[in-house]
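Form 12-C: Joint structure prediction
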Amino acid sequence: MCGVHDVIIVGSGLAGTGAALELAGRGIHTLLLDVGHTPSPKHEIDENLFEYRKSHDVFDITIGDSLQGLSNLLGNRLVPVKLMAPNAGYVTAGADTLGALDECGFSAIQSFALGGLANAWGAGCYRFTDDDLAGFPVTRAELDPYFDRLTREIGIAGEADDLVPFFGSADGLLPPLALGRNVNAFYRRYKSLRRPPPDIRLGRARVGALSRPVNGRPATACRNLEFFQESPSLYSPRYTLERLVREDRLALRRGLLVQSWREGDNVEVTARDVHSGETHRFEARKLLLAAGAINTAKLVLAACGDHDTALPLQENPALQFPLVLPTAIGRALQTDAFGLVQLNLVWDSETYGARLQGSIMEITAPARAEFFPGLPYTARSNLALIRHLLPAMIVMQLFFPGSAQPPAALSLRPDGVLRIVGRPNSLDTRGLRPLLRFLRRLGAFTAPGLIVRVPNGHAIHYAGTLPMQSAPSRYQCHPDGRLQGTRHVYIADSASFTALPAKNMSFAMMANAMRIAAGVAREARPA
Amino acid sequence: MTPQREAERIYTALFREPVPEVIADRFAYASLRLEEHAGPEELRAYRHALRHVADLEALEFAGRFTKRPGILSRKFQLMVCLAETLPQNRACFIKDRDARLPAYAALASGALRTAGKLIKGLWLLRGVRGA
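Section 2 - Result
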């Protein structure tokens, strides 16, 4: 044990990084603990993937010697496409052993990397509005100053358009990224509608991808590498952490898996060295847990020695479907489109009784073979479809609020394994009819058989295990993030979310972590 | 049947060309992992099909159509994933120039071809299951 720190943060993902940024800005002596795997790319390229493929074998980039790129075909569990690239192996490295799970009806993705799962995120940065915060003991006005600061820190491309009422202020956004050809045609049709439906709105995505150079980071080059290698133009919380460490404003200890904590006058944190197995103890005035909604809950249950209680775990259920633009059939594949979300759709759905959010992407970036098993013809004819039909397709992911399905139940087994019991995604796809009618008006068609229910756990929007309440009970936290029944322990990540709207929560989670850290700073070192 | 011959049969069914050596090697390596998740009955039927069925594409489609895509479908998918990595196969996956007529022709002929292969595949499937 080396002295008493003002604050210890556990976890280096978006929440831990937001908290560290805020505490560093207030001159608080902060130690951040994490396993903190970092990338060690073996094969990277510096040109457009499709050009490179004209003369190079890309096995090492798309599949790799350990066959990671074939995980969904060869493995027992499904893996989101962005985590299949050999260069992304570090993001989920060691998850099976460091965070062993016993799952049923839920397929959780965990990361023990520096920056966490945000190393493979879609970079969607959406402010929570007062509608989204319904039920939270927090208002948009309390989060807005942090949203503003983060907008500058991350560098977010976007635009003030029809989605401002749903995504909040567009101040400080970088110019939007160029739209791909198909998405652009689709969006132009929407803009030309004389009478758009009152319940559906479309607009530019807000993504943490640079449309012009910022702070030494380059603008997005659109080289179809989004699924295969990291680009500094796409924000990772690692960039912020590395800068804070470089500037000597944050102490970072990697290689440590925090296992428990104990409160006295201060908080004592116990961590295991993942390489040597040695136990380390640290002491701080305040402890901020930001290990993700699942692992933060695990730490709390472990600290309480509770192997009976089941905590709720929310996620955004989702549907995914391709859309064909018949007018684009026969066109060449566009090879310089941005591979992540380009447009968003907000639908106040009567059929589902909820506000839903859609993400619309061109599908240039993933390997073409990814689409092969979903196509309806024989194998050889499917190859022809890949060549002729895929360039005319876009994809929509439609997210539902967490309340659209019962939460999964998370508990800690006596052997330390976390048990998660959920239900398979059973969203009724018939409710999509009004949306599909609207999409047809925009010249985009799909078929009911092509609508896929995303497995629960794959949206990677985990939340609500220790929700904030005005009058919290056990395993809930106060509006300032303090865990009920503790004096010095705060929940900084999405574990503290009271509800989960149908919106990527990353940006709100980071802003809320800053808000909580600001309060902790005042407590840790009173003026 | 040797792994090389197995790769040859599946690659030829997909691309109508001899399998490149590097793909055959990778296929043999990945196949071992793939077969870990297949039951003995399924593997026996698969090997029987490799030896005795000439039109693997029809058989594979019939399996998929009847909602029972077995190891043959997964082997096809594996081969497509591996084949895509080679520059010589780029043109099979990427369309570099606008050409509407060939696209519509491919969609229409693909539908007809698929219908024909389905009939043949269902007939072949009975033989394989009865073997």
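Section 3 - Comments
Chain A has one domain: 4-524. Residues 506-524 of chain A form the longest helix (19 residues).
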